[in-house]
Design a protein that fits this description.
It is a single chain. With 174 residues, this protein is an alpha+beta fold. Helices cover 53% and strands 18% of the residues. The strands form two sheets. The protein has a three-stranded antiparallel sheet with strand order 1-4-5. Strands 2-6-3 form a three-stranded mixed sheet, with no helix packed on it. Helix 2 (70-88) runs antiparallel to helix 3 (94-114). The longest helix has 53 residues, at 14-66. The chain is elongated and about 115 Å long. The N and C termini lie far apart (126 Å). The model has no long low-confidence stretch (mean pLDDT 87).
């Protein structure tokens, strides 16, 4: 018996084929490991980018929350200036004081309206429990039953959502 390798069907010896197959397997394994390392690094980079985006978004939300009313407060500054100017005036007539208060109120209402605030002043309108709160009922002399006769306190809507109901007196049904 000899110890020499036996030629295979193609005429090559099986040791050479075995070495070639092993070299190909090692090369393929190295290629797969390199691809796996590349994918792992890519995954880590994407995860880090997502974490950075999450932190950036959290910062942006906090900034937005902190300065959400910046525009409103900036719009209120002229109203504050008007009130301070009115208070700084010394001896003046009640009529001038009233006129100054009316102008300041108009300024304030304009700022409120520009920011989505709308008054609910329902005198003569049918009672609406979604926007009105009945304080009392009175005989409906000259008023349709179930209609608002008097408003004690205006209600307010903010962008069509009830902020405060109007406090009203309603005419009785017969």
């Amino acid at each position: 018996m000899t110890t020499e390798p036996m030629p295979d069907a193609t005429g090559e010896n099986s040791a050479a084929t075995s070495d070639t197959t092993a070299a190909n397997s090692v090369s393929e394994l190295e290629t797969l490991q390199a691809e796996m390392n590349r994918l792992r690094e890519e995954s880590l980079r994407e995860r880090a980018e997502l974490e950075n985006q999450r932190k950036r978004l959290a910062r942006d939300i906090e900034t937005a929350r902190k300065f959400a009313n910046e525009r409103l407060l900036g719009d209120l500054l002229p109203v504050i200036d008007s009130l301070e100017a009115g208070l700084s005036v010394k001896a003046d007539t009640a009529q001038h004081l009233r006129e100054g208060m009316e102008l300041t109120l108009r300024q304030l209402l304009k700022v409120a309206t520009d920011n989505g605030l709308v008054a609910v002043d329902p005198v003569g309108q049918p009672f609406n429990p979604e926007h009105h709160q009945a304080m009392s009922m009175v005989d409906g002399d000259g008023h349709a039953p179930g209609h608002v006769v008097q408003v004690y306190q205006k209600g307010w809507l903010l962008n069509e959502r009830l902020l405060r109901p109007a406090l009203v007196t309603v005419s009785k049904h017969d």
